[in-house]
Amino acid sequence: MVSGPSSSSRSARRKGAAHSRRGVSYPWRFHCGTDSTRSAATSGGCRPGTTCTSSRRKRSGRSCPRCNGDWPRCWSNSPSSTASGANTRTTQGRDPTTDNNREEIMRLMRFVAVALLIPFCVGTASAQYVGAAVSDGGTIVGVVKVSGEIPKDEIKTVVKNSAQCGETITAEKYVISETGQVRWAVAMLEGITAGKPLDTKVEIMVDNTGCRFAPHVLVAPTKGKLQIRNSDAMLHNSHFYLVTGDKKKNVINLALPKQGQVLTKAKILRKPGLLSVQCDAHDFMQGYVWSLRHPYGVVTDAEGRFTLADVPAGTHTLKVWHEALGESSTTVTVTSGAETEVAIEF
Predict the structure, then answer these.
(1) Is residue 50 part of a domain?
(2) Are 108 and 213 within one domain?
(3) What is the mean pLDDT of each run of 10 residues along the chain (346 residues)?
(4) In-domain check, residue 83
(5) What is the pTM of this model?
(6) How many domains does the chain have?
(7) Residue 2, in any domain of the structure
(8) What is the spatial distance between Cα 79 and Cα 85, in angstroms, rounded to a whole number?
């Protein structure tokens, strides 16, 4: 009586066929049993003592016991597959073709990883600002104006605490003189990486007073500490958002229920960019904070004027931002020891 193939051999062939039906022919996925149970049909490619018993473990890439963490060393070298030429592996080691392919894939992965990392590193380095004494600096003196018809400021209706805040309140969106000078615009240098030191210890405060944020717009150093105060005898809260284009990302929401209460949170100025601050209790209250990595940013006064001092000599990009008028940029050439006048018109 001729004995049929063992149960382990039949199981191995079924699983090998299943892999082939999926369009992937991996004869080495046949299982290797222990020395006492593996059959002659499946023992050709297994090293002594190998106990790879789960195809799931092999497919997931988990290590085979006593295979040195390398499951391709465990494969089937059945007589049928060897005879048909389907199994190109030998019993002495790995398939050199597979090894070469694996090395090529690893080299490609390393190349892609480095290619993706280089722009990130360059971008991070370029974002850093180095502060030092400026010996050859100049000064930028400018004015921000509106040409043509001067827009009128918005009037908002007060629906809460009107006894303290009044029935209406101006939005401070268009604070513009009769001759067109714009208040509450921010003039700043873009892309500057070196210049006078940035003072992150300067005391800066936003006050909830008279049902407004005062000042309406301010500039603060990134990673500095911004104080929030409530000078009104009512509940206010200061809700900060980081603004990027048309999107706003929540930063922090600070409740100020008591008059005279002051809070300081480093989280507010953790990142550079434009911060919008609103009071959820009074939706007509609106303010802005520009968090800058460098000291070359300032808010225009009631006459629309601004001054940037100790600017390194050379060519710089000057950007002017206004909450309603938008942004305008120009190139400015600074000469050592001299003033450079600039006029920005919206």
Answers:
(1) yes
(2) no
(3) 51 48 41 42 45 45 45 42 41 53 76 61 60 94 95 93 94 96 98 94 94 97 96 96 95 96 95 97 96 98 97 97 97 96 96
(4) yes
(5) 0.65
(6) 3
(7) no
(8) 10
